[in-house]
Design a protein that fits this description.
elongated, single chain, mainly alpha
Length: about 70
């Protein structure tokens, strides 16, 4: 596997994760881990970070190798 394929696959994974966090934040779904209620702000932050990493990965994947 070359670097461009790796970046594309990583970007796709980050896109899915960011979309899941964004859907949770927009829908206001409750999430509890053990006794801890996960705040919606955490999903907003995770969507922003995941989206940024996805864009970065797609940009690197489409960059020419030469």
């Amino acid at each position: 596997m070359n670097a461009q394929k790796y970046c594309a696959i990583s970007a796709l994974v980050f896109t899915v994760v960011a979309a899941a966090h964004l859907l949770r934040a927009l829908g206001g779904a409750a999430l509890q881990v053990g006794s801890w209620q996960v705040p919606l702000a955490l999903s907003w932050a995770a969507a922003a970070v995941g989206g940024t990493l996805a864009v970065w990965g797609f940009r690197l994947a489409t960059r020419s190798s030469g």
